[in-house]
Structure to design on (437 residues):
């Protein structure tokens, strides 16, 4: 971790602690003051966006009608917050209550998948789901419950979040178990944040800020000396949530909703039969960046021999719950991705036992399986608030581990998609032309 990055993160953590203390002392006044300040900021920002559209739209392709519309909306929200800061009280109350109800509904779906897979924790998950829904309804309809959260729970969360983050910065080897996780919706945006960062780096031509062993590939030979965790990023809406898989030897091991036949989909498209595959490593990376348009961050894990053997045991234990599977010819249109994997020489399996029998994007997903295959190896586990594991939380974890000394994460490679390769080539040529002139 660089000193500037460390200072910035320390400042953010201290601000969270200060915000928690202020909120605990003067909760209502703090919320309304923050709402007024936010209103001023939004009004100014919205007005600048409107002025950009009116006077600069002909000189920049980035300024469109959407710039004007977003400016109007932002200004409107800002004016409402300035004129009526108490509106923030009601808005925060309803947002928090709605979030609790939503988390409860998600837990209900998880409970259903566990029940379907005969997992014993289905009952405890059901109870926690019902409690979350009931508490959300209470907060929605009771100002006293909202006051309790605003006066005590929310300040405590901010203080502990900032404090744990600050301790992790000062004492880099503090266990990730002591880290307070961010809410699920915040972790979910990390893949898009990382993708924008890479694009910004390529646009400036300052490729030196990418990891030293970044890989700009087409058909390159992938180093398989160490186990590698792949975190995928994409601007395509279907893949914007990200994806995680595990490189082991000459193969990439992955899990997801790769069977889209009618028989494999349930609960209005929320649940799928879980499909696991092992695909030749080089072919899979090539396909992902060139055909699927993804950018991949590869985190190299240097594990001791006994930990590598544990990974093998984990994989074999998981495979004991699977049966070989092949997409049916009649479902070729629906299962185009599975057919592409098969043509690359992948071995596909349908999970028939255990919690991964049913794929659910907010619980039994690709990131959770990758973590399961690394269980008992000493590699830390990622968690978003509420216990979910997402590609965003996995990305955040491996970035933190990469910055630590004596970590199992010893390197990082960036596999760029075709569009980014083109940007890199164009910016490199411009840089060379500038130096020549």
């Amino acid at each position: 971790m660089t000193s500037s990055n460390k200072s910035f993160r320390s400042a953010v953590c201290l601000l969270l602690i200060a915000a928690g203390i202020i909120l605990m002392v003067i909760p209502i006044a703090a919320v309304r003051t923050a709402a007024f300040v936010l209103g001023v900021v939004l009004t100014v920002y919205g007005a600048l966006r409107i002025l950009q559209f009116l006077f600069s739209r002909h000189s920049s392709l980035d300024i469109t009608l959407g710039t004007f519309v977003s400016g109007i909306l932002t200004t409107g929200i800002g004016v409402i917050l300035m004129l009526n800061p108490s509106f923030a009280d009601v808005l925060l109350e309803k947002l928090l209550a709605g979030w609790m109800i939503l988390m409860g509904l998600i837990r209900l779906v998880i409970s259903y998948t566990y029940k379907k897979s005969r997992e014993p924790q289905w009952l405890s998950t059901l109870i926690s789901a019902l409690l979350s829904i009931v508490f959300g309804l209470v907060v929605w309809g009771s100002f006293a419950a909202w006051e309790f959260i605003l006066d005590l729970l929310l300040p405590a969360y901010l203080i502990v979040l900032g404090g744990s983050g600050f301790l992790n910065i000062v004492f880099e080897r503090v266990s990730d178990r002591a880290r307070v996780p961010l809410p699920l919706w915040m972790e979910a945006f990390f893949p898009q944040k990382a993708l924008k960062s890479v694009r910004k780096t390529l646009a400036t031509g300052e490729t030196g800020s990418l990891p030293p062993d970044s890989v700009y590939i087409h058909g390159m030979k992938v180093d398989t000396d160490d186990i590698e965790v792949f975190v995928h990023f994409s601007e395509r809406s279907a893949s914007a949530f990200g994806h995680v898989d595990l490189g082991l030897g000459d193969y990439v091991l992955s899990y997801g909703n790769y069977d889209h036949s009618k028989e494999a989909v349930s609960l209005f498209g929320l649940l799928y039969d879980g499909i696991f595959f092992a695909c030749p490593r080089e072919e899979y990376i090539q396909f992902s960046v060139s055909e699927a348009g993804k950018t991949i961050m590869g985190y190299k894990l240097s594990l001791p021999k006994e930990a590598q053997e544990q990974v093998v045991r984990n994989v074999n234990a998981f495979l004991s719950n699977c049966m070989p599977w092949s997409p049916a010819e009649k479902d070729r249109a629906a299962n185009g991705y599975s057919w592409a994997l098969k043509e690359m020489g992948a071995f596909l399996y349908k999970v028939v036992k255990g919690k991964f029998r049913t794929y659910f994007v907010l619980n039994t997903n690709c990131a959770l399986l990758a973590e399961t295959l690394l269980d008992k190896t000493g590699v830390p586990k990622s968690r978003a608030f509420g216990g979910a594991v997402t590609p965003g939380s996995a990305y955040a974890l491996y970035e933190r581990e990469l910055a630590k000394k004596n970590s199992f994460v010893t390197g990082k490679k960036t596999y760029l998609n075709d569009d980014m390769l083109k940007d890199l080539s164009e910016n490199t040529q411009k840089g060379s032309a500038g130096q020549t002139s």
Summary: Residues 182-427 form one domain. The chain is about 55% helix and 15% strand.
